[in-house]
Design goal:
The protein has 478 residues and is mainly α. It has two domains: 207 residues, no CATH class; 251 residues, no CATH class. The chain contains 24 helices and two strands. Strands 1-2 form a two-stranded antiparallel ribbon. The longest helix has 26 residues. The chain starts with 7 loop residues before the first helix and ends in a 7-residue tail after the last helix.
Length: 478
């Protein structure tokens, strides 16, 4: 590299290009911008960065090494995401996810509808690792029931989103929950345990708030939800014994078994359970796939494997259940992996060119002490959610920016990973033009500007994190 550091103006040009290009892209493509157009913008931003770096005297080899190092840091997270896809498929055909949904819906009653909505969405999101899938399925059903009870759409949407994002954030099967510790340099379970110090109080306060708000709710009917549970129990063999498998997987992770191994065990156990608990369902899926009336054991074997790596769809008559009872397996995670690889390419060129160091130095000049560094991280994640309009970038870029600073100040990496999630993951849905905010508007038909005040968990999480930083509560040292 050139001995002279790049100027601040030169360093921020790639970021400005990314922000403007993504803003245009999201405006045109909406929530479908994640299908590939955002990835192309990231690669274009990488090209702009490389071009400016070359003008500044940075060699191409240095840029390639920066990209390789960055992608290497995310390699385990990518493998975990593939295992998440396999796990989701096996747990769908085994009946584990339908059983979790069944018992979650059973918690609802008119008198406690709003806090129960938070809990149900948290359960489903915790099991699936996806806030988007939760709001698009159970969330839509709860929106209709809540409005029939007299609750405002914005209030119900806030409860749905609060629960969905708590479950997503705390799920070991979530992409962002795996991405944040990978960026910070810590392990998955340490990250999740450390998040309970902020997410725990945030979800408790959220439940209390919705309990008070729900006291004056109308007396509605839960007939629509009872139809969902009836169809689930009629189509799938639901059993509380199936809950032993997620308990086993989570238990292995808690006892510090490698996450990939724990998910592999959970996937295998799910396939075995599918054979013994859902054999009739496997027969139906096999016949639908083959389009024939006869088959042998090899076709069942194929169906089990397909559920882990390919598309699986359990057809239901209710459209909400029909959307929920599907999984893309490992192949369904490839879009997220594609986005991460492109984001890591941009981050790698930004770091290798020296631009990231200059930008980070600007933020660090305003960050005094450990509390200032943590609050600067929270603010930067929020800034990227509002400008780059994508939660993955709000995790990846600040993660790369601040990782070395946390090491130099003697802070454990889980402080960084928690800050990335407490702001990068959960505030994305509060921004109307962010991909998450746009998706929720398209799904729940309530704008972020309306439901934001009721998405209590989402805006409370960074506030609690900043408060703990200011008073020095449980700030872990390296």
């Amino acid at each position: 590299m050139n001995a002279k550091k790049p100027s601040l103006l030169l360093a921020i040009l790639p970021v400005l290009f990314l922000i403007v290009a993504l803003a245009i892209n999201v405006r045109i493509f909406g929530d479908s911008s994640l299908d590939g157009s955002n990835q192309l913008i990231l690669l274009a931003a990488s090209g702009v960065t490389a071009g400016l770096a070359a003008l500044h005297g940075v060699k191409a080899q240095a840029l390639w090494e920066g990209i390789q190092d960055n992608i290497q840091d995310s390699s385990k997270a990518i493998l975990i995401l593939l295992m998440v896809g396999a796990l989701a498929g096996s747990w769908l055909v085994s009946g584990i996810i339908p059983t979790l949904i069944f018992y979650g819906l059973d918690l609802l009653s008119p008198s406690i509808f709003l806090p129960a909505t938070v809990i149900v969405c948290a359960i489903v999101s915790l099991a699936t690792g996806s806030s988007w899938a939760t709001t698009a399925t159970i969330g839509i059903a709860l929106m209709g029931v809540g409005q029939s009870m007299g609750f405002s759409p914005a209030m119900v949407a806030g409860a749905v989103i609060s629960g969905a994002y708590f479950g997503d954030k705390m799920s070991p099967f979530s992409d962002t929950t795996n991405l944040a510790p990978a960026m910070a340099g810590t392990d998955l379970m340490t990250h999740i345990r450390y998040m309970t110090l902020t997410s725990g109080p945030a979800i408790v306060i959220t439940l209390i708030a919705f309990s008070f708000m729900g006291m004056n709710g109308g007396e509605g009917s839960l007939d629509d939800l009872s139809l969902l549970t009836q169809e689930l129990s009629g189509r799938i063999n639901l059993s509380p014994w199936l809950m032993l498998i997620p308990a086993l997987s989570i238990g292995l992770i808690i006892y510090k078994v490698d996450a990939i191994v724990a998910m592999g065990v959970g996937t295998l156990a799910g396939l075995i359970a599918a054979y013994f608990f859902q054999y009739d369902l496997l027969v139906d899926l096999t016949l639908e796939r083959l389009g024939v009336d006869a088959f042998d054991w090899t076709h069942i074997y194929q169906q089990l494997f397909i559920s882990t790596y390919g598309d699986t769809h359990i057809a239901m008559s209710n459209p909400l259940l029909n959307d929920l009872m599907e999984s893309g397996g490992m192949s369904g995670m490839l879009g997220t992996i594609w986005l991460i690889l492109c984001a890591m390419t941009f981050g790698g060129t930004l770091a290798a060119s020296g631009f990231l160091e200059v930008i980070t130095a600007l933020f660090l000049r305003m960050a005094h002490g450990s509390a200032g560094l943590i609050i600067a991280t929270l603010a930067t994640c929020g800034f990227f959610n509002a400008t780059a309009a994508d939660q993955y970038l709000a995790i990846v870029v600040p993660g790369r920016m601040f990782r070395k600073a946390y090491e130099e100040r003697g802070l454990a990496p889980e402080n960084l990973s928690r800050a990335l999630e407490d702001s990068g993951t959960v505030t994305s849905v509060l921004v109307p033009w962010n991909t998450c905010g746009a998706y929720q508007y398209a799904t729940l038909h309530v704008s972020a500007s309306d439901y934001a005040i009721y998405a209590i968990f989402n805006w409370l999480s960074p506030i609690i994190n900043a408060t703990w930083a200011l008073i020095g509560f449980r700030i872990r040292k390296a």
